[in-house]
Amino acid sequence: MDEVRERRNNRAGKITPLACAGSLQQAAEQGRIESFIAVVKLADGSIQTVWSHIQNTEALGLLECGKDDVMNQIREG
Known about the structure:
alpha+beta; two-stranded antiparallel sheet
């Protein structure tokens, strides 16, 4: 994504993939992240899932927590 579009999206209050990545990197550098999992949709439409050094069962648990968070946001409107 080009810089102009990124700034425009930030001003409009949109959370871009670059902003998410920057926030995650900053939190990791500050030692605030114990583990993480991410599901991304790539530009070609494919889905990729990556996670840190955790067990597969913990990765599934984090995904369920994320799913619950999204469902709660939907309910709250």
